[in-house]
Amino acid sequence: MIKAGFIIALFAALVTGLPVKAVEPNEILKDPVLEQRARALSKDLRCLVCQNQSIDDSDADLARDLRVVVRDRLKAGDSDKQVMAFVVARYGEFVLLKPPVNARTSLLWGGPALVLLFGAIGLVLWFRRRSSATAEGLSADEEKRLAALLDDNAASGETDR
Amino acid sequence: MTANLRLSYFLPVVIVLVLAAIFWSYLGEIKDGKSIQDLPSALIDKPAPVFKLPGITASDKGFDSTVLKQGKVTLVNVWASWCAPCRVEHPRMMQLAREGVAIYGINYKDTPEAAKGFLAELGNPYKTVGADRTGKVSIDWGVYGYPETFVVDTKGHIRYRHVGPIMAQDLTDKIRPLIKALSK
After folding, report:
1. Which residue of A has its CA nearest to B37?
2. Which CATH architecture has domain B52-183?
3. Looking at beta carbons, which residues of chain A come within 8 Å of B135?
4. Class level of CATH domain A2-100
5. Consecutive sets of 10 residues in chain B, 184 residues long: mean pLDDT of each?
6. What is the DSSP string of B16-40?
7. Which of the listed residues A124, A143, B87, B155 has the most CB atoms within 10 Å of its CB?
């Protein structure tokens, strides 16, 4: 009986358990609203040491320091935008996991649309060529040549036999 | 029809050539010792951050950002005793100091004893060392790897950032020429 209970408890813990986050207890702000904002912002900031993780996910020393900086700025009364601007001013736009839309990132954001456009153009050209090939049919001259060839073939076939 | 056909024949060749050119340029950068992990500093050509750092121990002098605006080209080197590449780089710092370059050290997240031991063992190339125990000032400089070295011009603007240890070639190729050019 104890065993069954243990397994149920273990299963429940596995199903409902929250994923372990890098944020340490002493970093968490007392104000839950501010903490919520800090978490949301941290998810969009790149950890510069382990470059494909957010600072919210990373255990790196610098990520921890940046989480604290984000929280310090929020406590000082900064808006979300101001906090992001503060970090970008120091580390550049690369620190944003979601790149902003501007002239430098136009190819990045417009790339998929361009690929779609080229694909569509290619598809239209392909269909056009196919339909024009079937619609043309044979000219009178070609019909005559074909008939002659078939006749020839039939005749030679008979003599061969 | 035939024009179309020709185009579709050559398009793959054109794509391959364009890609080859892009890859070739990246290969060149790698050969020049550049890594994709070397990020451009957001502070290039901007004024150095305003800060004030205490010395390694209470009896040591620290420094603040005003020393970077005294009409001389300066180097700011972020280092720590626990950072192995800093040890590798150290002889070049000594070399520059002997050549008369003003180098200010930011001692990143170190203990006073370890920092002192490092300088006592290997020599002290720094005019002054400021201790950044929380790492906050280093964040203001946009530091993410250690060591990092900044070249600051006569007006206190950051002109160049080097991530990782400075090797002999970096001195001859970049640091020395830049200091010379900025000193004019």
Report:
1. A51
2. 3-Layer(aba) Sandwich (3.40)
3. 61-62, 65
4. mainly alpha
5. 67 92 84 65 89 93 92 94 94 95 95 95 96 93 92 94 91 93 89
6. HHHHHHHHHHHHHHHHTT--TT-PP
7. B87
